[in-house]
Amino acid sequence: MASSEEDGAPEAGGDREAPRRRRRLGSLATAWLTFYNVAMTAGWLVLAIAMVRFYMEKGTHRGLYKSIQKTLKFFQTFALLEIVHCLIGIVPTSVLVTGVQVSSRIFMVWLVTHSIKPIQNEESVVLFLVSWTVTEITRYSFYTFSLLNHLPYFIKWARYNFFIILYPVGVAGELLTIYAALPYVKKTGMFSIRLPNKYNVSFDYYYFLLITMASYIPLFPQLYFHMLRQRRKVLHGEAVVEKDE
Amino acid sequence: MTDLSPGWRFWMPRQGKSCVFWTRTPRGDVPALPLQVEPQATIAEIKNLFTKTHPQWYPARQSLRLDPKGKSLKDEDILQKLPVGTTATLYFRDLGAQISWVTVFLTEYAGPLFIYLLFYFRVPFLYGHKYDFTSSRHSVVHLACICHSFHYVKRLLETLFVHRFSHGTMPLRNIFKNCTYYWGFAAWMAYYINHPLYTPPTYGAQQVKLALAIFVICQLGNFSIHMALRDLRPAGSKTRKIPYPTKNPFTWLFLLVSCPNYTYEVGSWIGFAIMTQCLPVALFSLVGFTQMTIWAKGKHRSYLKEFRDYPPLRMPIVPFLL
């Protein structure tokens, strides 16, 4: 899409919205965000404990997903609120980045593991569940303590170092799970619309999954290197020369 | 694009006519090849001079400004009239490879015209072999082809003969972005409309007739607005005025919206979506509407900023609502 159009009228592109100054959060916003982050930390902690207990009692990962699925779906879906937080400006992150992040989680939980039952006992599911759990507990406790202005260094350290391993591990788990699901999707033709139909459209979930897997190739490095840059800035106080686009 | 670009300082003697360029480097200011510049020189002339010593940065790529974070100076600005003292420091920024608006428009519109026809004529490898070069038995499919082709021919002709562009160029990468959007959606829509298994509209001829009426009215409306906007601005000038309704009834929409051309454009695509009853067309209309709303809001804001007496009843794109 052309970045701006023209006719005889004044230029559109020059103006920008006044930069939002959110350095000072209102007390309501602070209270809500603190509650939200505490709740999410607790939720993912419960998940972690449930997973450990299951493995200790049963000694296998089979049935693990089934036992924790309700809790997982609840807390992961609740994270949609984070997009709203960015939209209304109480969190300074870009809506797009948060949107992509949360959408990919919702996609994995609801459109893959929930909907494609045969793959629920795959090992790759455990792989991404563990990665997500550790990441989220670290992330939400980091936000909680930051909001309360008492951030222990080890939490900051964890938030900016764990991802180095957890990100690739999580991505591997997700990709392997989608890959395992492909034969079932192809066989059942689930979530797909064929021609002819009243609205003259078609959709093939199998190819959609393939394209999704392919999209990890450009997306994952971008997110990973973004986190690495943040890490250098936060932990080592390096001045980051940002590209302005 | 980083801001680590060299700055130039030029000395503007009070009575004299010659100026000298200096180049700012990390080691400090280093005199570049001295260039003579009149104090009455325009920014455009300075850019041309600059290109002579730095040929890789043609004028369209140059952004000169008085402050590294400030707005770009306009080509028409005269050096003497700028808020500078006897010494003027200009900061240079490379805008990247540029391409002319006309080129971009022609390319992005020619694509859909051609691509749609490939699907209409069922060129081999698009559908199953038994359908190669066959023709649809639904009259609405032929009508849709005429409408779609007319729309893009109109756009091409307007680009060549009607529009008066403020800027000559835009960044080169835009052509890839824009063409992907237009060509991609055109192929996606055309695939379904011209598909051997295409299902005609549920309400038959009635639906198609209504849709065609909407489409034609909006095409005429859109063209009327483009002509009205062209007439606002004499050839070669970059003046800006508030557009007002003319004798042409299609322009009366200016009473209610700032950008009726966008309103009519969305209307045309809604008409086309109803005509073809094709979900991809509806999605294309929605995406286009979203983008045009963003542009309309920006333009509306610019109008409000520039003109104190701007008509208060007007909304950006949808009367009374948006």
UniProtKB/TrEMBL annotation, chain A:
Membrane topology: Multi-pass membrane protein
Keyword Lipid biosynthesis annotated: yes
GO molecular function: very-long-chain (3R)-3-hydroxyacyl-CoA dehydratase activity
Pathway: Lipid metabolism; fatty acid biosynthesis
GO cellular component, one term: endoplasmic reticulum membrane
Keyword field: Endoplasmic reticulum, Fatty acid biosynthesis, Fatty acid metabolism, Lipid biosynthesis, Lipid metabolism, Lyase, Membrane, Transmembrane, Transmembrane helix
Listed GO biological process terms: fatty acid elongation; sphingolipid biosynthetic process; very long-chain fatty acid biosynthetic process
Reactions it catalyzes: a very-long-chain (3R)-3-hydroxyacyl-CoA = a very-long-chain (2E)-enoyl-CoA + H2O; (3R)-hydroxyhexadecanoyl-CoA = (2E)-hexadecenoyl-CoA + H2O
Pfam families reported for this sequence: PTPLA
Transmembrane feature ranges: 35-56, 77-104, 160-185, 205-225
Principal subcellular localization: endoplasmic reticulum
EC number of this enzyme: 4.2.1.134
Subcellular location: Endoplasmic reticulum membrane; Membrane
Disordered, as annotated region: 1-20
The keyword Endoplasmic reticulum belongs to this UniProt entry's keyword annotation: yes
Role played: Catalyzes the third of the four reactions of the long-chain fatty acids elongation cycle. This endoplasmic reticulum-bound enzymatic process, allows the addition of two carbons to the chain of long- and very long-chain fatty acids/VLCFAs per cycle. This enzyme catalyzes the dehydration of the 3-hydroxyacyl-CoA intermediate into trans-2,3-enoyl-CoA, within each cycle of fatty acid elongation. Thereby, it participates to the production of VLCFAs of different chain lengths that are involved in multiple biological processes as precursors of membrane lipids and lipid mediators.
Similarity remark: Belongs to the very long-chain fatty acids dehydratase HACD family.
Protein's UniProt name: Very-long-chain (3R)-3-hydroxyacyl-CoA dehydratase
The organism of origin for this protein: Heterocephalus glaber (Naked mole rat)
Gene that encodes the chain: Hacd1
From TrEMBL, chain B:
Top-level taxon of origin: Eukaryota
Domain TECR-like N-terminal: 36-94
Residue ranges of coiled coil: none
Protein name: Trans-2,3-enoyl-CoA reductase-like
Biological or metabolic pathway of the protein: Lipid metabolism; fatty acid biosynthesis
PROSITE patterns from the UniProt entry: S5A_REDUCTASE
Entry's transmembrane regions: 99-121, 180-198, 210-229, 270-295
